[in-house]
Amino acid sequence: MSYLVADQLRGGYGGADILNGCSLSVDKGEVAVIVGPNGAGKSTAMKALLGMLDLREGSVTLGGKDITHMSPQDRVSEGIAFVPQTHNVFGGMTVEENLEMGAFLRTDDFTETMEQIYDLFPILKEKRRQNAGELSGGQRQQVAVGRAMMTQPSVLMLDEPTAGVSPIVMDELFDRILEVKQQGIAVLMVEQNAAQALNIADKGYVLVTGTNKHTGSGDELLADPVVRRTFLGG
Amino acid sequence: MPEFTDILNAIVLFSNFVLIPAASYGAQLALGALGITLVYSILRFSNFAHGDLMAFGTMCVILVTWGFQSMGISFGPLPTALLALPFGIIGAIGLSLMFDKTVYTFYRTKNSDPVIFVIVSTGVMFMTNAIVRFIIGPNDQRFMDGTKFLFRSREFKEFTGLSEGLALKSTQVLTLTVTLIAVAALFYFLQKTRTGKAMRAFSDNKDLALLSGINPDRVVFITWIIVAALATTAGTLYGLDKSFKPFTYFMLLLPMFAAAIVGGIGSPIGAVVGGFVIAFSEVIVTYAYKKFFIYLMPESLEPTGLMQFLSTDYKFAVSFIILVVVLLIRPTGIFKGQSI
Amino acid sequence: MNELLSQQNRAPLAFAVMALLLLAVGMGQSWPYALAILNLCLISAVMSLGVNIQWGYAGLLNLGVMGFTALGGLAAVLVSEAPVLEAWSVGGQGMAVSFILVVITIILSILVYRNMAASWQRRVALTVLYIGAFFTINHFYEPAVNAIESVNPATSGFLGGMGMPIIFSWILGGVMAAGVAWVVGKITLGLRSDYLAIATLGISEIIIAVLKNEDWLARGVKNVAGLDRRPVPFELDLQTTPWFIDMVQSLFSGRLAALADNDRAEALHQLVIQSSSIFVKLCYTGLFTVVLVAVLLLSMKALNSPWGRMMRAIRDNEEAANAMGKNVVRQHLQVFVLGSAVVGIAGAMLVTLDGQFTPTSYQPLRFTFLVWLMVIIGGSGNNLGAVFGGFFIWFMWIEAEPLSIAFMDLVTMGMDQASDLRAHLLKSAPHLRLFIMGLTLLLTMRFMPKGIIPEETRLHSV
Fold first, then answer.
1. Which of residues 79-108 of A touch B (CB under 8 A)?
2. Once rounded to an integer, what is the mean pLDDT over residues B35-51?
């Protein structure tokens, strides 16, 4: 049984169901990637894991504990960290303050965690006195990931972390995410850049209309001719 | 060429009628605008009841001051009102939290449109206004005691031998000192403390603040405490410097809004700068420069008219003209506030 | 009970209650008093309709109602006062030159703005232009103002008006308010809703500041009293008019016949005095009702026209309307101008009724925020609701004062008659009406956000 498991999720935002029995799981030290066409319910699935969606059916467990009905805030303190796609930094605050806010709930000394994040993203240390809003897109994403990491999460969820950044920055960001994985954190992300994301994924999910269409390791999916043709553009 | 004493006289004249009064008025506006800008950036609405909150807090201060005076308690050369200030602040905090619980919380949880907040804040404005008028009446109240002047115009003239006098009211010095302390304390709080940073984070990006585990109720609670304290302090200083009248405080809402917007609404530093910009513009534009130029110009070039841009009656209008111009040219204000 | 309060029944029921309230005042207090309230209710309803056009149709938060009301009042002065020829002869020329210079400045600044690229040079050019214009204009303007204001300062000291019947000001008031609204709208309508509120509130204060200080225009704080070219007869004239006396005599023939001969003449005299006051008020009631009904019918027709549907579509979803190519700002400008014109008409009606123009009486609580209460409590978006709000809130505003005093009297009955606290409470009781108004607004917003007579929900498409 994996660390974070979502089983047979059904639900939506009050109207028709967007999720129609989709199941996901990710273990510590693993990267799982959700891909799929627009409107497939990728971000919705992630919101369901965060508790921002009313589920009609299905369950979510974290380390064996049922968290299906837990509020988003409580999930944060249970160790789930989330990096939204947009508006994911405090633009008017310095990089260092952003990290501090990430550690808001912690009462212990978090300077060590901050050093770890600066080691992971050296550019942030250099710019720590600068406002996050003044940084480039890629650097902002690093701040956003860093902020989420400050809670020392066991699960890190990212909603399209590479949206709108250049290919070089994307590669660098993926490298960092692999480093995060190495720290024994479960990483779950939704990605538009499917091929590149599946490259680094231990597990891949192709969602279509709220259900699992294809599941497998990243390499398997990349090798699957059907997936290649329909979702990866050849 | 004017003589050296003429230049000195001109400077003294300008200081006495423009610089000093504008600086203390600017400080009062700055404190008021800070409250408006904090409510705007953290609670996300334009609070039309802010002027009346100021009046309410000041009224509490006045009542306690009268109580102290009747008990024979005084603060030496300083006004007794300073001793009463904490009580007034507590009163204003109580009122703010009461209205937040009974009125604003409902619309906040519903995520209502800013316009709805403006309308309900006018309801709060009516009620606060009524409470103040009911308790203390609609008329002018003076509650200044202690030393009135640090030095008077006549003393200055005798001391310096100049023909122009310079008077320095103790309330003017007091206003600037208290404002300096209050603003420094506020900025330290917002920049350096954990709670202050959480408030900035909440104002910057509410959703991300929630994701980081910042408790929104606590942020709102502390915001009202700070806003009430600032409003009461501003109102008390204004009342000591001039006088207290509920209607005047209601009308102060407009220059305070102008200050907050001119500085860049949502930006505390902008509110402070905006307060001084508005105050100096009001005074500079409505001052009659005739005497000033008589000192500086050779006799042949002396002005005939009053040399006044606008009649003093337009003092209030000046702040709006600036407001409108800023909204047109640079809607985010001097220090980029939240865009509108 | 629920059925009784259903959508269709609400309006007739509300107006029936309103009529009963007015009748109660007529019988309990006095008929002239009830009619005085009714007349102001009618004017308030017109104002409320104007604001409803802006807020209810288009969602524009205009807090400058007071300014447009005052412009209507200014129109009343400009229409009905006799021209002060002496003032024109001493200062008219200077004023005309100043005016032409203002127009030239505006044209020049538009030319500079259009023909220069946005740069610091353009800013400098405009600043130089404005400073130069300021001093040039002042050179002609100041002496002209001084000359005009020194012509019989105690009684005139201004340019006077056109010497026409004041009723024409109802048109001019609307036109003037519309003109100013156009300029104000051009400046402010791009702003976010709550900034629009602040900006319009500020502009209305500027308008009042101008009216208070530009004595040459309408005597400023010296007021203009005795606006006497009014559309209805004067009480004193009526009291000596044979047909009126005859009418009163025949109306009250029964009561008069019961009196002894020597008392009859005196009683008739008293009745004539009372009746003349009622008659005059009724004349106003008739005129105001005509205006109200006309504005109401036009508003309702407009609301149900394609134009009105589009307005509401924009209000409900500005972005969608924008995306569909509707020019939102232009549509907003239209409603802003229209609504302000209606408010201006009401402002002229008010000064007509008062017979005097007093700039200091224009206070935002009474002329801006109270009108807002009328619209929101009555029912924003619903014209009948706005009319009812105008009636109801004005009635409350007037009657809350005696009621507050009576209430306080009751509460403090147990206290020592001579106690200071009792005296203070009684003296302060009138301020409770502000409290009642605020509370009513908050309760309405909370529990009846659509008002007493809510907007009819209809399906509409853009």
1. 82, 84, 87-93, 97, 100-102, 104-105
2. 94
d(CA B308, CA C76) in angstroms, rounded, equals 32
Task: Count B/C contacts: CB-CB distance under 8 Å.
Answer: 130
Interface of C with B in 111-140 (CB under 8 A): 134
- For residue B272, the enclosing domain spans 4-329
The answer to whether the Cβ–Cβ distance between B205 and A87 falls below 8 Å is: yes
* Of C51-55, C422-426, C445-449, minimum mean pLDDT range: C422-426
Is the CB of B197 inside 8 Å of chain A's CB atoms? yes
Q: What is the mean pLDDT of chain C?
A: 89
DSSP conformation letters of B148-201:
-EEE-HHHHHHHH--SS---EEHHHHHHHHHHHHHHHHHHHHHHHSHHHHHHHH
Nearest-angstrom CA–CA distance, C160 and C158? 6
List all residues 6 or more positions away from B68 whose beta carbon is below 8 Å from its beta carbon: B74, B80, B83, B84
In chain C, where the domains are located? 29-83+163-377, 84-159
Q: Would you say residue B241 lies in a domain? A: yes
pLDDT in tens, A174-203: 999 999 999 999 999 999 888 888 999 999
Q: What is the CATH number of domain A1-79+155-161+185-234?
A: 3.40.50.300
CB of B119 within 8 Å of a chain C CB? The answer is: yes
* C290-320 pLDDT per residue, tens: 999 999 999 999 888 888 888 888 888 777 7
Task: Return the CATH number at B18.
Answer: 1.10.3470
Instruction: State the ipTM, two decimals.
Output: 0.90
Distance of CA A42 to the CA centre of its chain: 11
- The tokens for C459 are 């399906």
Q: Inform me whether the pLDDT recorded for C229 exceeds 90.
A: no
Nearest to residue B144, comparing CAs of B237, B263, B275, B256? B237
**A16 class by beta-carbon count within 10 Å (0-12 exposed, 13-18 middle, 19+ buried):** exposed
Tally the domains of chain B: 1
Q: For residue B283, is it within any domain?
A: yes
**B214, A73 contact by CB (below 8 A):** no
Average pLDDT over residues C26-32: 90
Handedness of CA C95, C100, C101, C105 (dihedral sign): positive
Distances (CA, A) of C64 to B126, C324, C365: 17, 30, 11
